[in-house]
Amino acid sequence: MSVIKLDLARRVGIIDRKVYGMFIEHLGRCIYGGVYEPGSPLSDEYRFRKDVLEAARGLRVPILRWPGGNFASGYHWLDGVGPEERRPVRPELAWNTTETNLFGTNEFIQYCRALDTEPYICANLGSGTMDEAAAWVEYCNREIGTSYADLRAEHGFEKPHKVIYWGLGNEMYGDWQIGHKKAPEYAGFARECAKVMKAMDRDIKLVLCGGQEREDDREAFFDWNWEVLDKCADVVEYISYHFYWGPVQGQDTHYSMLAQPYHSEHYLQFLWQLIEQIRRDRRVEHPIKIAVDEWNVWYRIHDNRLEERYDLSDALAVAIYLNMMRRNCSAVEIANLAQMVNVIAPIFTSPEGMFLQTIYHPLRLAAEKSGTIALDAHVECDSYPAEYVGVPEVPYLDALATFDESAKKLFVSLVNLSKEDAQKVDIRFEGGDLAPEGIAHIVSGERPDVVNDFGEENVTCRAEPLDGISGSFAYTVPPLTHAVLEMEVR
Ligand code: AHR
C-alpha cells in the first residue's frame, strides 16, 4: 500500500499557467500543413486549420512560442510581413528546406488571438543583428509614428500587437545553430540586444538562452549558465532550459524513459540555485525564473520532419514531467511543449483530418484539471534504482496535489509507472472536509507501446465516478495509468 499525505496548509507555491505553453516552429509540417494550410477545405478564412485550432483550444494554451527553434537563428522577420506576392521564397538553412514566408509575424499574432494565447517570439541572435531585433519589437509593439510601427499599420494592423515575451536566441551554445556562439560572446551580444529591445518597449520580458546538459561534459551546463547570467541577470526575466529525452540504451525502455524527468529535475533545481546565487551576488532585485521553452519525449526520428508517433509510455512520461515542473513551481514559470502540431507533437494531421496522439491526454488534463496552488504532497511508495539517469531511486507512484482556491477543488495527479502492479494508495487529507463524491480522469492502455492513429484511439481519457471519499480513503491506480482525481473541499 502506498501513502499520500496532504495538508491544505502545507503549500509549495503558486503554479503559473504559462507552464502549459506550446511551441510552433517552421519545421516539417508544423506550420505549413499543421497550423496553416491554404486551399484546404478544413481551413478557415485565415487559412488556419479549424480542426487543429479546436484540438489546440482543448489544451488551453496560455503562451505560444514561435518561429523556432533552430529556424529562428536564420529567420529575418521582414521576409514574412506585407503583401504575400512580395514575400521572398528562401532556402531554409536550419532544416534544409524552402521557406515561403506565407506565415509571418501578423499571421502568428492572428493565430494567437484565435487561440486566446500570449505570443512569445524568439528573436534571431544567430544570423540576425541587434537593429533587426529592436526593429521587430518596434514593428510589434510601438504606437504608430515611427517607421516600423507605421509599416505594421500599412500592413493592416494599426494597433500594436503588444508582444510581451521575447527570446534572446535559441540554443546559441550548439554548433548546429546558425551563428552559434561561445558563452562570453553570446552573453555580450544578448546584453546589447536586450538593451535596445527594452529601450523600444520597457514592458517586454526577455528570456535569456540557457545552457545545454551534456553527459560528456557536466561542467558545460554550469559554465554557460554562470557566464550568461552573470553578464545579463539585470536585463532579463527568464533563462531557458531545454529537455528532450528517450529511454536509456541498455536499460528497460519503459522504466528508463519514465526515470528521465527526475534527472531533469536535478538540473532544474541546480539552475534555480545558480539563478538565486547570481541574483544575490549581483543585487538583482527582480525575479528571474526558468522557461523550459522546449521539452518532450523525442528519440525516434531525426530527419527534417520529426513526425514521432507516441505510445502509452511516452504519455506517462509527459504526465510525470508536467507533475515535476509544477512541483518545482517556484523555479519554473514558463514551459513550452515542443511542438504543438505534427513535429514531435500531440496533434497529428493529414490533408484529410487529424488524430490526437497519446501525449495529448496528459497535456489536456494538466491544463484543465489542476489548481494554481501546489501542495507539499508526502508520498510513501516502492521505487526502482535509476543510477543510469543520475538519480538513486525513482518512485513507482508519481504524485502532484494542487488546490483551486476559488472553485474549492483538490486535484491529485497520479502516475503508476509499474507495468504489472496496481498501486493501492491511501490518501490522507487534512485542512478541510472532502465531498464524498468526485471524478477520476483516467489515461491508460493495455501495453506500454500502444499508439493512436487516424481513426484508431487506443489511448484516450475517460472520466469515472469516484466515491467513498473521506479524510482518509483508498484509491487503486491500475498499472500503466495516469489518473487525476478531482475532489471538492467543503
Ligand atoms: O524542436 C526541435 C528542435 O530541437 C528545435 O528546433 C531546436 O531548438 C531543438 O534542438
Explain what the structure shows.
The chain has 490 residues and is an alpha/beta fold. It is 26% helix and 27% strand. It is built from 9 helices and 25 strands. The chain has helices at 50-58, 105-115, 130-141, 147-154, 183-200, 218-232, 253-281, 312-327, 360-368, and strands at 2-7, 11-14, 21-23, 63-66, 90-92, 97-99, 118-122, 165-167, 205-208, 238-245, 289-297, 332-338, 347-350, 353-356, 373-375, 378-380, 383-386, 391-395, 397-404, 409-416, 423-430, 438-444, 461-466, 472-477, 481-488. The strands form 6 sheets. An 8-stranded parallel beta barrel has the order 3-4-7-8-9-10-11-12, surrounded by 5 helices. A 7-stranded antiparallel beta sheet has the order 2-15-19-20-25-22-23. Helix 3 (130-141) packs parallel to helix 5 and helix 7 packs parallel to helix 8. The protein is globular and about 65 Å long. Alpha-L-arabinofuranose binds next to loops.
